[in-house]
Amino acid sequence: MVNDILILKDFEQYFKYVGILLTLYYLMCSYLLLPFISFSAIRSKEFLTPSVLISIVLILYLTFSIFTLSMPNFEDSIGFAVAIIVSLFIYLACCFIIYLRNLHTYTHYLAIAGSSCILVNAMLPIQEFYYNNSVFQAVIYSADIVAMLFFLKFLISGEVIKEKNGNSYF
Q1: What mean pLDDT, rounded, does the chain reach?
Q2: Element at 21 (helix H, strand E)
């Protein structure tokens, strides 16, 4: 919430604080997801499917495009922009590893939360620097609320899926 107030007040002036707060937010969310991540019996075919590889390439392309587009506005604080991107990718990796492993209930909530975070972080620099529109702003903050809501719903409701014989996967 503090982050949103700083963004609404003056994005460029408070970008360093926004960078610190967003980085901490994504790292704390990633930390909260660690108990749900299981690397036991990972098969490479789970993660190296064409759809996953195409998604990774498209997310990297989107990130690089938005970063280079807004780079002239971040010249004095590129480190904060890079910290936001790295922490966002850590959070997205946690979300989508849990989603792809499908060992817990409601993993689709994490897919929605991660996708909403991508949407917010892609649209926010465009809205602040190039196309300031109230509809655009409403979409950004709605997606931000959806991301937080589904992330929290997963943390509250996510449980280990039981096998048919009653044993858990762990």
Answers
A1: 86
A2: helix 15-33
